[in-house]
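Now read the record:
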Amino acid sequence: IYLISLVGDIDRRDSIKINFPLNYTAMKIVNAVDGKNKTAKEYFDFLSIMYLKNKNIITPSELGCTLSHIYTLRDFLLTNETHALILEDDVIGSDQNIEKVKELTRILPENSIVILGGQQGLGFNKYIFGKDYKYKNLFEIPSFSMKFISRSCCYLVDKRCAQTIVEKLENDIEIIDHWHKIFR
């Protein structure tokens, strides 16, 4: 279980500690990249690559978030674990939710990612359709609905999928929240 958090966000980590008392000590805290602290040259290098390839602009905060996830996934790839639960420090949940996620690792096929929430308030929910998968409230999302899935606050990923994400983002920087572009 990885928890991505800016060094200065003590209050957020304290909140996570309260909401996940049984799992907090097992969480590996990843010091998030603060994109606002990147030098102009570092930021421009990423921005120019992204703009040339995608005609898109990434904000410093989006860059920091994306780099934080790349570093976290790279760390996971160096472990012997089969799955990683990636949480950002503003995630809403409980230890019970984590126990349900652990159960998912037994039924997911290889090369899987499960977006575990964060879709609230986006206005796209009416376009997200899926067919039931082998678990209550777990859905396989068709290509049509993929473009409406966003946010990276909490997801479960296996090794092969993590490798795919890292390769994509290292070779063609994209905002981590734009899952449909990553999995094109």
Notes: The chain has seven helices and seven strands. The first strand starts at residue 2 and ends at 5.
